[in-house]
Amino acid sequence: MERGHAPIERGALRKDPGGKLRVALVYPNSHAVGMANLGLHAVYRLLNDDPGTLCERVFLPETASERPASVESGRPLLDFDAIAFSLSFEEDYGNVLALLDRAGLPLRAAARDERFPLVIAGGIAVQINPEPVAPFFDAFLVGEGEELVGPFLALLREAVAERLPRAGVLRAIARLRGGYVPALYDVDYADTRAPAGAWVTRFEPREGAPATVERRYVADLRKVATSRVIESPSAQFGDLFLTEVARGCLWGCRFCAAGFVQRPYREVELETLRAEARKGVALGLRVGLVGPDTSDHSGLDPLTCTIEEAGGTFSPSSLRVDAITPELAGRMARGGERSVTLAPEAGTDRLRKVINKDFPDDRIVQAARDAIGEGMSHVKLYFMCGLPTESEEDVLGMARLALRIREEVMLPAARARGRMGRITLSVNPFVPKPWTPFQWAPMHDRACLEGKRRALQKALRPKGIEVDFFSPREAWLQALLSRGDRRCADLLELAHRETAGDLRRALDRWPHDPDFFAGREIGVGERLPWDFLQQGLTKVFLARELRRGLAGRVTPKCAVETCRACGLDCADHPELARGGVGAAPGRAG
Questions:
Q1: Nearest to residue 449, comparing CAs of 465, 431, 423?
Q2: Would you say the pTM of this structure is higher than 0.90?
Q3: Contacts of 487 (CB under 8 A, 6+ apart)
Q4: Taking all residues of the chain, what is their mean pLDDT, rounded to a whole number?
Q5: Distance from CA of residue 212 to its chain's centroid?
Q6: What is the rounded (10 degree) CA torsion for 436, 437, 439, 440?
Q7: Is residue 228's pLDDT more than 60?
Q8: How many alpha carbons fall within 13 Å on the CB side of residue 491?
Q9: Are 216 and 142 spatial neighbours (Cβ–Cβ below 8 Å)?
Q10: Category of 389 on φ-ψ map: left (φ > 0), alpha (ψ -120 to 50) or beta
Q11: How far apart are CA 256 and CA 147, in angstroms?
Q12: d(Cα 320, Cα 350) in Å, to the nearest integer?
């Protein structure tokens, strides 16, 4: 974004660059999308908290003719010592290449020498599987910024002061806990058209690089305040003061990568959150509560009461179906919420047990009833389609559930109020993600998913219920990149150079079978491209959870992390049955 097009903001930092380490923090999408990402705000603050560092933000320019430049000063990317990408979504990988190319940097790390800044990346996409974009980056930092930024800055500052050659800097990054330098690993793969039960045939470190890379995370989050630091009204969620309430998740939904790679579950303490919420209220903004499952926070009720008593309003990023009470719904409605969002994810009790969500249809209907009864008007239902073991009965179960809510909740409310609220189904095709029990599962093909979409629309449109079905084509491409290896970098570069970024068209010129990555059932014994990452989980645990899911067995919420990590039930570890957050008194699990 050129300086002349800088958006209206409040809170951005503009430092004197003299004598400082210069870091460009890049989000590979628009300013509006990037500024809605709380992780970007957190890293921006961490970098600028260092008095010897200048950090400025760069986003994807609005037009292809614009060169990427920082929001704060209009400085081009080539004028920084390091370019740090924040990667959250596979769909943004193509934008990484566009940004590097427009900035005048070679796309491949192997083609960059001392004349160019270091190009690094972090973020949840990197933490799950960095390999599809590994050839474009000098290094990755795997884990949470609070643990990674300080050591990285110290290393980089020393390297600049001592004029270390680029190769020496990269070897030093590889020795950092959480540092991954792709160029220091020799990798070979099986032929995608004749895999013969293998995938990664060689992954060998050299020059002192570690065999595995450890994810870094903050062990104690109680006093760690992570909130929006720059007000940007034009951003998505620009009317919200975003603040993080927790990291990790207690529930282990078998399709959700964040629920596994962000373990253990950690809360920000109530008083810290109250102080952050008051800042948002003082700014006249709604308080956006951010977390994988905000309803797990032990202080959610007193926190939302504090916000209401201060004259503010709040919006939780996610709530479990069984956590929506009339009291909580009432506070949300009084704060201006007009829609309740519920995430059954599957259409039947049976399939919900497969994915490790253990609540019946009746509880979903009751949650909608509680919300509408307290003054909300509309219901949005999130589902996934194409889940392992899914049948036609499960697909039509989504429609039956929506029709029950219409008949038992919405119609009686409409008679009393004189107006009918909306019911919307948001349906996403299941995409297998690394580091989940379903990482080995195949994705349903496009024709199958399109048939399920038509069946839902046929059942619901005559009743005025909208079905928003995410593109099976785009979901399939996401699966390809999510479970990809370094050969996918060739596809990304091919699309960038020859098909205007269109991956589907580039597939015809790519010499590999895309279904090897997206459409097949992977053998549990195969060596996977992301196996070198240490998440605190084992494949034995994930494979056991896969078997439990396919058998329709639910793994109960459990706070005994040692027990969860090995994949055994609490009954298998009586010596660990101590209770804790998420474990009832007198028992574990």
A1: 431
A2: yes
A3: 189, 192, 512
A4: 91
A5: 22
A6: 170
A7: yes
A8: 25
A9: yes
A10: left
A11: 24
A12: 18
